[in-house]
Each structure stands twice: as C-alpha cells, then as structure tokens.
C-alpha cells in the first residue's frame, strides 16, 4: 500500500547550496568562509487530489477482498464462507487483492515526487513520521481488542506484539498483529533502496532512470538466481510496480520523455506476469477464487492507466477538497480494516442479524470512521512532532 503524501517537497537550491535557509556556517570578523545565500523555496505544486481518490479506491478493493473475496478467519465472522454470503460478487471481490499492486504503483510515483530535492534526513523524517504513528496506534488497538474475552480471535504473545512495534516482525519471523503489514515491509525496503540510490546522491532525471534500469535488471537476475538474500533486497515480484510508478512520475515531469515511457511499458509487461503467476490458478473447486488471467491483466492495466491519467493531467478537474480527506483516511483504514473488520462483521451479521450486503457496507463505514479518529487523534498530533524531532540537525 502506499503510505505517502501526494504533494511534492519544495525544490531545493542548486548543487552545493545549504539544505535550508541559513544552514551554512556563520562568519565572524576575519573569517574568510563565504556565507551561502539565503534560499527561498518555491511554492508547492498543486496537490494531486485525484491520486488521493485512487488510493482510497485501492484500499476499498483490498477491503472487498478481505471481506468477501477469500476464506479464512472472515468465514468465522460471517458464520459461513463468503461464497455463500456473496454468491455473485465474491468472484469480483477476489480481484480486490490487486489493490496492493496499485498501491505500489502509486507509492513509486509519490516517493519519487516527494524525495526529489530532499536531503536524506528530510526524506527519512518524512517517511518515518508518515508511516509510524498510525501504525503504532493500530498495533495497540488490534492487540487490545483481540485480548478481550468476548473476541474469539487469536492474539499474538505480548513479546511478539512488542516486536511488531518495530515493523521488523516479518524478517524476524515473529507473528504479525496486522495481516496487511507485509506490504509495509515491502514499502520500507523500497524506501531504503530509493534513499540510498537516489535521495542520498541527489535526485536527477538521469540518476532516477539509471536506478529504474538497474533495479529492473537486478530483480530479473535475482529471480533467475533463486537466491533468498537477493529476493529479499530486490523484491522481483513487486519491483515492477514501484518502478512503474517512478516512471510515471517522470512522465508527469515531461510527458514526451521516451525513457520514462519505456520504464513504464517494461514495468507493466513484467508486473502483469508476476501478478498472473501469483494469483492465477486453473479452475478448481477446492480453491475459493477463480480469477482469470485476462481479468488479472486487466486490473493491473487499469491501475497503471489510472496513475498515468493522473501523471498526464487528465484528472486535474478532480480537484475536490474531500479527496484530500479521503486520501488522509486511506492509510489508517488500510491498517485496521481487516482484523477489526472481522469483529464488526460478526457483531453486525451474527449479533444484529443484518443481511450480508448491509453488513459489508456498514463495516466499511465503521472502519472509515475509526480511520478518521486515528487521523484526528493520532496522526494530526504525532506526525508533525515526530517529523520535527527527526528533522532537527544534531
């Protein structure tokens, strides 16, 4: 999922200038060191509100998958398999898992946009402050709810719950509090690669193009080598989606950039392959899902096309302020919707006897309301403070 803002950082000065106004050393009488000129950042580019809306659509796709497109714990919440609850729509809901790939494309776009012209310190502070406050709150909230005697779901051990606060539970082999946090581990690895290869030396068009080409080739080599360490670092299965999003940001900067379009095309070709390889299987009554390869390719293609429409400015008219609110709710909604959704579904469907479709809609509304509370009570208060603390030079 994309856990990022959709507005760029202000451009910085030319190479060699300080990272912020007045950041250079001061001079006293007799000191020959030059004083760097004061830098006045340019105004932010207009927020791409259509991208906020697209993020929410991707999150709702994933929610549809978790509520009605798969078996597992959610079957216990419904009392029966979602196939019986949604005899027609469950087939469509099964494609909702591809919302994750769309998130990764959006993330590639926005991370490249927000990292362009930023220092490594600023980039790190931005990512940590955006990612962690809502994540910490979701870990505490889900752990607390699952510990209640009336909630009959397995809760991780106290030790594992504490490790989950570091976001390192997956590589450490620790039980996850949030089922969706595997996507955050992929995001963190992408941030690290981008920070080291692009942000640290300074983002330029040439450097970003080389990064995309190098990562694409290295991921293909990792796939062929079957080396777990290379797979862990280079993420062959997800790299095309992040890289495709970066290419689309280059298109946003210059729609006539042939290299950027080449990056997008190659990423789409490889990305659809991995999506089909992971999510398609021959029709089999033992499996819940019955996704067709054509359907998978179509959803992946629509994700790329939607982000491309934003990049090309075709959706600039979708500039409604409520889309910014929708974008702000997306990340906390994504964090809590699955596990707490089970609790809500059971309460509404088995407890109150509401029909399946009303239960699904009410559960989504409940999770959005909870996401709004997390945004107001946690993110709005902690994110700027954490960013400020991490941004201060030492």
* Unreliable residue runs: 2-43
Helix-strand string? HHHHHHHHHHHHHHHH
Q: In DSSP terms, counting alpha (H) and pi (I) runs of 4 or more, how many helices?
A: 16
How many individual β-strands?
Answer: 0
Helix content: 55-70%
Decide which structural class fits the backbone: mainly alpha
Quick one: overall form? globular
CA(first)-CA(last) distance: 32 Å
Provide an overview of this structure.
The chain starts with 48 loop residues before the first helix and ends with a helix. By secondary structure, it is mostly helical. It is built from 16 helices and no strands. Helix content is 66%, strand content 0%.
Can you tag this structure with a few keywords?
394 residues, mainly alpha, 16 helices
